[in-house]
Amino acid sequence: MNDTSSIPAAAAATRRRFVTVTGAAAALALTGALTGTGGASAASGARVDRRPLFTLGVASGDPLPDAVVLWTRLAPEPLAPFGGMDRATVPVRWEVSENESFRGVVRRGTAHARPEYAHTVHVDVRGLRPWRPYWYRFRVGSQISPVGRTRTAPAPGDRLSSMTLAFASCQAWFEGFYTAHADLAGREHDVVLFLGDYIYEFGADKGIRPGSADPHAMRETVTLDDYRERYALYKLDPDLQAAHASAPWVVTMDDHEVVDNWADEAHPSAPPAQFLVRRANGFRAYWEHMPLRMAQAPDGPDMPLHRRLRYGTLAEFSILDTRQYRSDQAMGDGTKPPNPESLDPARTMTGDRQERWLLDGLASSDARWNVLGQQTAMARLDTVAGTGVGVPMDTWDGYEGSRRRILGGAHERGVRNLVSLGGDLHRSVASDLKLDFEDPRSPTVGSEFVGTSITSGMDGMDHDEGGLTLLAENPHIRFHNFQRGYVSCRITREEWTADYRVADRVTTPGGRMSTRARLVVEDGRPGIQTA
Q1: Alpha helices, DSSP H only, in 290-365?
Q2: Helix 224-235 and helix 272-289: axis angle, to 10°?
Q3: In which residue ranges of the chain is pLDDT below 70?
Q4: What stretch of H or E contains 418?
């Protein structure tokens, strides 16, 4: 099953405002925000085949029992407008095989890389067999892409005994090397969840990587061309390409795919009408560069990103969007004590329709594990030492009504084995999810694993002062670490095991990865235990 709810009425109103913008917003669109500019002349088309085309690798995503999305982009000059391509449509052949040698090709066809989509290709391959590994590749003329490995989901009623997944987030290119992605690629996960901040919109301000001072890295992304160029910069990384080629990815965005801490139609960088143009640009480039179906393609500043993916009767994944429909951050954002605004039950993190979609889906699920793939921490994060309380207004702490409705609603509905996966914090935090975080004796209704960043925040350390405060002030937090990495999980019918994989360094190449902690949740027993 792969379903979404309808777009809320507010979003429809947003679209009407978007298509009638004038003044500064219209000027932004005319300077390349909504359609790319530049590229080689049509007369040079004959040279395209002689230049490397598959410079940004391949990817797959959103596996179903009989289908998977395949992705690539033609970009002989990745950081040039249009990736150096002519403004012409290019036929791209694709193949899917049951073996890496491609002697058992089971599906093949021709897609079209179109200039209006930056010559990206999204192929929704159907007619595959459930719970099978497959290999895929693309071809243009005599050029053949790298080979990717993917895997379909099990049949809906399959009593799957085990599966593996990894989840990650926050990969600021200029703050470190993708050591964690290289490690992730070598562990052959069945699926990878990427939970936001795939790119960063602001210009590089640290020279960690060669090329960090290049104009391509230093420019803030505003126009569609800017965002496309930023994705190309990130996707040039060979370790990120290897991670994409190793398994299907299921993705959702957070804030930096558009601009830091945006909320619905609001951001202090621009008036709403102008911000919606920028949001449309970010959404368009995001969809172009991710292995997503046409069902997730944006319509201007609206994109139906929340969806549900099922792995037999073992696990059901509800992939959330906590940016597009949320209320603006309480009290002007930042870290504040709980306040009348953050406690206002009318405020929402997900929007009303997505919230109902989530709770209805959880209520009807017969899966052993019910998983929320979302952007940030649901657990309370008191960041102030001593008697005072200060919580971040950008996490679920700033949306107490939403958190209570979802955790309380799951508890009332008897949802089995609720597990939240999140990112955003640039630190690893594993927590028990409480019905009432004010009362340590309150029932534990679920478990949460928040992963650290791939690179954002640079090397880090085992514990910083902020992490020690989190452990001291929040008795529901069971584990903390402040290094870079990702989380590798094995799920069986009896338990969920999460390995927190961390790097000793990311600011220089050749960092070493290790398992900092192995944490377990037992079937029918919510809460984190140490293996």
Answers
A1: 352-364
A2: 40
A3: 1-49
A4: strand 418-422
